[in-house]
Amino acid sequence: MLDLDQLRTFVAIAECGSFTRAAETVHKTQSAVSMQMRRLEERIGRPIFVRDGRMSRLTENGERLLHYARRLVQLNDETLAAFDESEVSGFVRLGTPDDYADRFLPEILARFSRSNPKAEVNVVCAPTPNLFDLVAEGELDVAIVTHVQKKGRKGADVIRREPLLWVASARHAVENESPLPLALGRPDCDWRRAAQAALAAGNRESRLLYSSWNSTAVGAAVLAGLAVSVLPESALRSGMRVLCEADGFPKLPDCEIGVLRSWRQNTRVTEALVEHIISSLDNLSVPQAAE
Prior knowledge:
Arc Repressor Mutant, subunit A
């Protein structure tokens, strides 16, 4: 049988990036952590770490094990929480991009508060890349993010897919300008990359007029008729118009929205909030844009 305590320590090392920081996280001495990893390698029968200068990094087998270790640790915590019949209370830290906060949080927080009146939620709004870092560093318990999967980084569980759409003002014809003015997120925004790649593939000349992490600022540029942007279907606002292939705009990839959970703090209050997030997004109605 695999030892769950060893697996939890292994995940901590992968998340923290070093044996020393992981030891602090799991409240063990560094020698105890090293001993646990030697025993885990013996049980697996494969090396899971390799020296890289003064640092240790995961081998290919270590990357494979990490996937299963996270699932096993999470399932263990969920199982214990399922049999805890005490009233849900406590403190949970939730992260979300500001555009998701506008659309999703009113429903999520209302449902959660009614079901768990003794629980407290602290909300942090930040871009998706920052939220991944905050969860990995133990600063957040759960986050709603645009789904991304990178090697060595835990991916989010996808809970909603919806179209990513080109949008413009319903009262202006800015989409006919050349070069096409754009209002998009910062350089590492997946939606920005998708939009610019699609336009480049179609040889459509464009210029970035506004760039911001703040969805309200981007939406303001669109509604004022100053630029075209891209938004997921659920983020459409009154006064926006969807542009399609008939208007000369290529189809974009779907937007995947996910929930990212911290392995450090998997409590009943966290699991209860995750359940409400999933339920709320499953039943979310989509606003109508102008024709």
